[in-house]
Design goal:
Number of helices: 15
Helix content: 40-55%
Largest sheet: 6 strands, mixed
Order of helices and strands: HHHHHEHHHHHEEEHEEHHHEEH
Number of strands: 8
Distance between the termini: 95 Å
């Protein structure tokens, strides 16, 4: 790994690079525990296990690196060299018998969204932020503007947000048009001031076209849009989630082993897929990269229905099995395929509900009480004593005519929420006990 990561460094004069074990260990700890760079630095100082994992021989009471070094190291390594960490983890797992080589030949492939740390984008916020960035950059380079619209622009943004919250959309669109006008005036003013100056044109070469895109984009336009000014590569991706209809980030393909090995379930491949491609059209690039990373041929690939019509190579075309597929699916493969929701609604009812229903119906004699129901001690005693005394001794006599209905268990999110007809069951049991007392009387 030191040879692989050391290729990006040079022997020129300057500050020496940080140790490879330190930076690789920090990257592993960050993604293992899902930490930000700030929290990772705080825990590294106070946790001796983190320091030992990163190669420190003595306990350090302060950071031996700067937080910004993590970002610079990731940008310098790139995706190809960071994939070497996954390859090294798999090789260590194979050497320590934590995973068998045969487990790496059967994988599950799926896509997800890696969210970007951006605010939820709206047209009003983007227009106002683009104007603020242009004004700030113009002041930094000494470009005098006719007007900055700092006060009225902020007021127009507040107006738009209030009108949109009150569902007064005509007034909100009027405030949005005002924000777009302010941004257009600043763009044209800066274009006139920097015309012919190569230095200023180079300084505004990145932000000025981006601000023009923000101003010109419409709500329902086709094609790429700008959702963040500091990260214009962010894409809007909808995965059909009820709690999160739209996510802003980049699509990522993840492959894991099907069966859980001795050391756990391992990730065999991760790849970013910019451009939000169709899931089925990613297998042509994912499968060769996965085989090169693992070092063996993939024998079986399981995927969900989002991969229908995939473009896998002819060698792997009949090794890809889609959820719901019938042809060529053996019973073993069918068990490994992703299962859908349970077809039997009664399977969602918890055990306490079924046990309490059995007590009321008389099919069970003794059951411990549950927190969601009254204690059944008196109920079971009355029902057992009454039924035993009246039915055994006075069998020719007909019992009182009433129907004892089984209560219906209603479940909310897998938990017992309420038992209906409890009052009706109590009345029936009282009638049963009173009838038993009358029949037992001389």
């Amino acid at each position: 790994m030191e040879e692989r990561f050391g290729e990006v460094y040079t022997d020129d004069p300057g500050r020496p690079p940080l140790p490879t074990r330190l930076m690789a260990g920090l990257a592993i700890l960050k993604h293992t525990y899902d930490l930000s760079d700030e929290v990772l630095c705080e825990r590294w100082v106070e946790n001796p296990y983190y320091q030992y994992f990163c190669g420190e021989e003595f306990f350090q009471h302060r950071l031996v690196f700067d937080r910004s070094s993590l970002t610079r190291w990731r940008n310098r390594m790139g995706e190809e060299r960071l994939a070497a960490l996954i390859q090294e983890s798999l090789s260590v797992a194979a050497r320590t018998k934590a995973i068998k080589p045969s487990d790496l030949s059967r994988v599950i492939v799926d896509t997800t969204v890696q969210p970007k740390n951006v605010t939820f984008p709206t047209d009003a916020k983007l227009l106002n932020r683009a104007r603020e960035k242009l004004v700030r950059l113009a002041q930094r380079h000494g470009v005098s503007l006719r007007q900055s619209y700092a006060r009225v622009g902020k007021f127009a943004l507040i107006q738009h947000q209030r009108y949109a919250h009150a569902k007064q959309f005509k007034r909100a669109n009027r405030a949005l048009k005002t924000l777009r006008t302010y941004l257009g005036r600043v763009i044209r003013d800066i274009g006139r001031k920097i015309d012919g100056n190569s230095g200023l044109e180079a300084a505004f070469a990145k932000l000025l076209p981006l601000a023009r895109r923000v101003r010109e984009q419409q709500q329902r336009q086709r094609g790429p849009k700008v959702y963040s000014l500091h990260a214009p590569e962010v894409e809007c991706i909808g995965k059909g989630k009820a709690h999160r209809p739209y996510e802003f980030g980049v699509k990522v393909s993840v492959a894991t082993t099907i069966s859980r090995a001795k050391g756990g379930q391992f990730v065999t491949h991760v790849k970013a897929l910019p451009g939000n491609p169709y899931d089925g059209h990613t297998l042509a690039t994912v499968i060769p990269d996965m085989e090169a990373l693992v070092g063996s041929t993939i024998e079986r690939i399981l995927a969900d229905k989002g991969y229908r019509g995939h473009n896998a190579s002819p060698d792997h075309k009949f090794r890809v099995f889609i959820s719901g597929q019938k042809r060529g699916v053996t019973p073993n493969i069918k068990r490994e395929l992703p299962a859908g929701p349970p077809s039997n609604p009664s399977s969602a009812i918890s055990r306490p509900s079924t046990a309490w229903a059995a007590i009321i119906s008389g099919s069970a004699r003794e059951t411990p009480p549950t927190p969601s129901s009254p204690p059944p001690a008196t109920t079971s005693a009355a029902s057992s004593a009454g039924s035993a005394s009246c039915c055994a001794k006075y069998s020719p006599l007909s019992p009182p005519r009433f129907r004892l209905r089984q209560p219906k268990a209603s479940v909310l999110h897998g938990r017992l929420f309420q038992i209906h007809s409890w009052a009706r069951c109590q009345r029936a049991l009282r009638q049963l006990s009173s009838a038993a007392v009358k029949l037992a009387a001389p």
